[in-house]
């Protein structure tokens, strides 16, 4: 079958608007389209391809497991799932793990656990969940309602109740709506879709203190910020604030769909047999790949290298901005970075994305005003330099009205 981009509209639901080119092959931080054009990948599948494309150790892990066991159902357990859970608990605050297929499902599990924990320990009145405006937690109806962007949750009928939103980095706004009715506060320790917004130390510590004060659980959504993305294994480690529940996905599988919810043994007791589940969650294929990814990334040298590569990006982006004056600031941490557009280019992040594709660079946006980069954590320095050179061409095209 001769597959073309034009066929997309004939067979796909129109909820996406993908680029005109169709990628067919990737290696490391480079991707090739149907015509053989080479692209530098600064998008990383939205912070998923943490080891780039077709990393040989990931490929080997998948091939090896594919000849052993693919799927069992949770009537049985399996060795890769137990090994991965042990490694996750050994490396974090957590003592118990629940596996799912995605970040949204991991967040769904976290929210259901928080509600059930509150019911078990405090009663039916304690059901309020608070999250933050511009936050993003997935697309299931529960998670998209907890997410703080009404455009994603409006238009699907009555929403799940007892969910409220405070303002990120504004402790007073959270204080104003917290009470003994609050069962959980859910936050990203670095807002991704909302514009690459880092929390202040005061805010992160204050949220933890308020949760303690009101006997509420603190849930950290580390779907985008976790597994080495910020230069720490998980972003909470760099903040010095420990959550009660943590969710992880995206980079955890390096491109193979997998998600996990991590928590303490005491809190986990509320998910008794039958209370929650997932047909594919914890399947041997996903866990074997994720175990290999985790082994590679849970390495101090690699994590320190992420911070060094962040500086390469920042230096290069600042040099571009000195020349073209399009960004108000470079935000983010590690290799989750956002170029916030200044007033002259407000609302035009997609123009920079489209122009970048034309210069053979793959990048992302985080809303209408931020160009986002989330490349492989092991992207070679020469690919960073080449990608930034292509990004400079894209910036020049936008500035000169040629995009």
TrEMBL record:
The modification N6-(pyridoxal phosphate)lysine is found at residue 250. Its EC number is 2.6.1.11. Binds 1 pyridoxal phosphate per subunit. Coiled coil: none annotated. Its cofactor is pyridoxal 5'-phosphate. Its main location: cytoplasm. Keywords: Amino-acid biosynthesis, Aminotransferase, Arginine biosynthesis, Cytoplasm, Pyridoxal phosphate, Transferase. N(2)-acetyl-L-ornithine binds at residues 139, 278. It catalyses: N(2)-acetyl-L-ornithine + 2-oxoglutarate = N-acetyl-L-glutamate 5-semialdehyde + L-glutamate. It is found in: Cytoplasm. GO terms for molecular function: identical protein binding; N2-acetyl-L-ornithine:2-oxoglutarate 5-aminotransferase activity; pyridoxal phosphate binding. The keyword Cytoplasm applies. Pyridoxal 5'-phosphate binds at residues 103-104, 136, 221-224, 279. It comes from the Bacteria. Homodimer. May also have succinyldiaminopimelate aminotransferase activity, thus carrying out the corresponding step in lysine biosynthesis. Belongs to the class-III pyridoxal-phosphate-dependent aminotransferase family. ArgD subfamily. This is Acetylornithine aminotransferase. The gene is argD.
């Amino acid at each position: 079958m001769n597959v073309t981009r034009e066929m997309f509209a004939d067979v796909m639901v129109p909820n996406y608007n993908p680029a005109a080119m169709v990628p067919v092959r990737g290696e490391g931080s480079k991707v090739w389209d149907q015509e053989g054009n080479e692209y530098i990948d600064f998008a990383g599948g939205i912070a998923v391809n943490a080891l780039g494309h077709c990393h040989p150790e990931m490929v080997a892990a998948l091939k090896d497991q594919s000849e052993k066991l693919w799927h069992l159902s949770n009537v049985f357990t399996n060795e890769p799932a137990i090994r991965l859970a042990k490694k996750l608990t050994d490396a974090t605050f957590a003592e118990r793990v629940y596996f799912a297929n995605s970040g949204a499902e991991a967040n769904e599990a976290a929210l259901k656990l928080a509600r059930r924990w509150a019911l078990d320990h405090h009663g039916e009145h304690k059901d309020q969940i608070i999250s933050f405006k511009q936050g993003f937690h997935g697309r299931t109806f529960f998670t998209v309602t907890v997410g703080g962007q009404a455009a994603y949750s409006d238009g699907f009928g009555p929403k799940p109740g007892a969910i409220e939103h405070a303002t990120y980095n504004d402790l007073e706004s959270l204080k104003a709506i917290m009470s003994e009715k609050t069962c959980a506060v859910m936050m990203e320790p670095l807002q991704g879709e909302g514009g690459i917004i880092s929390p202040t130390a005061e805010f992160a510590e204050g949220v933890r203190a308020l949760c303690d004060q009101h006997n509420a659980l603190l849930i950290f959504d580390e779907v985008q910020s976790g597994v080495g993305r910020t230069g720490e294994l998980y972003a909470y480690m760099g903040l010095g604030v420990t959550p009660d529940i943590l969710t992880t996905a995206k980079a955890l599988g390096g491109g193979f769909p997998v998600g996990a919810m991590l928590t303490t043994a005491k809190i986990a007791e509320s998910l008794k047999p039958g209370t929650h589940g997932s047909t594919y969650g914890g399947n041997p294929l996903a866990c074997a790949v994720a175990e290999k990814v985790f082994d590679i990334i849970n390495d101090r040298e690699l994590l320190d290298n992420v911070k060094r590569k962040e500086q390469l990006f920042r230096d290069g982006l600042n040099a571009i901005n000195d020349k073209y004056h399009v960004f108000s600031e470079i935000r983010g941490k590690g290799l989750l970075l956002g170029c916030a557009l200044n007033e002259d280019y407000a609302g035009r992040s997609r123009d920079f994305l489209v122009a970048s594709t034309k210069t053979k660079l793959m990048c992302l946006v985080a809303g209408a005003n931020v160009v986002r980069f989330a490349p492989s954590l092991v992207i070679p320095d020469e690919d960073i330099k080449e990608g930034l050179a292509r990004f400079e061409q894209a910036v020049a095209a936008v500035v000169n009205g040629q995009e």
